[in-house]
Amino acid sequence: MDHTDVSVLPDDLVVEILSRLPLKSFCRFKCVCKPWLAFSSDPNYRKKLPKIPTGIFCQYQDFDKKATKLLSQPRNVEKIDGSLSFLPHHLQLELMDCCNGLVLCMHRSMDWSRRTITCHFIVCNPATQEWTRLPDTRPYQEHDVCEAMLAFNPSCSSQFYVFNFRWNPLSSFFSGLEVFSSDLSTWLVYDAWWNSGIRTIIGYPHLFIDGSLYLFSLRQNSVERILVLNGFEAMSSRIPPNRRTIKLPRDHSVEPPNGLPVGMYTRGRNW
User: Fold this and answer.
1) SS3 for 125-193, per residue?
2) What pLDDT is attached to residue 268?
3) What is the pTM (predicted TM-score) of this model?
4) How confident is the model at residue 27 (pLDDT cuts 50, 70, 90)?
């Protein structure tokens, strides 16, 4: 079998090949030669190549006190404000999610006369300290719980999406879904589309990769399915995203996680 010298391959083709590698493999292949190493710092190619995590955002809460910190390598500490102090209400913000360099935060306000809560979301880029405040969500009852997730793929588009699931802890069923599209700058309500008896677990990790959002779905008190949402571009025309489920083998179903002690918890997000 003839072996082709990699130096004769066009740079665009090499970058296209490297962009399809897992992060660990990409880091190893950077050591093959200096030109491959240079690709990772070239602004024209960096958007396509796998991103190396800068650190992990962690939020600590001890009753009514919150603190957000960025756990990272020493060389990154001075460049990024890990406390997110450049954001308004940063001491009251709850760290909700991170996705490909963007961070989703939230704080709540209570209408005591109506016993309803409104969520106020902020999406920011800690590296540039750019941020945007999303429109307020619909008020929800104080006994309901909201779980928000961020979807962002900079290699495909500068648009991002925020999924805000409304959950009734008494039944463990999600009762509603509203999605913010940065393209439309508004929340899209999909309650009727979503309210189909699907139970998705709060506290289990979710994953956004290759334009699809993956979540665990609960059935008969164990995780037996993975819910997949994709086709977000159609939401620009107010069309609901595609939805399908992946059934796990019976011997791979897992039990839902136990709750953390009341009053103190830690939440970590890869960034």
Assistant:
1) ECCCCEEEECCCCCCEECCCEEEEEEEECCCCCCCEEEEEEEEECCCCEEEEEEEEECCCCEEEECHHH
2) 44
3) 0.68
4) low
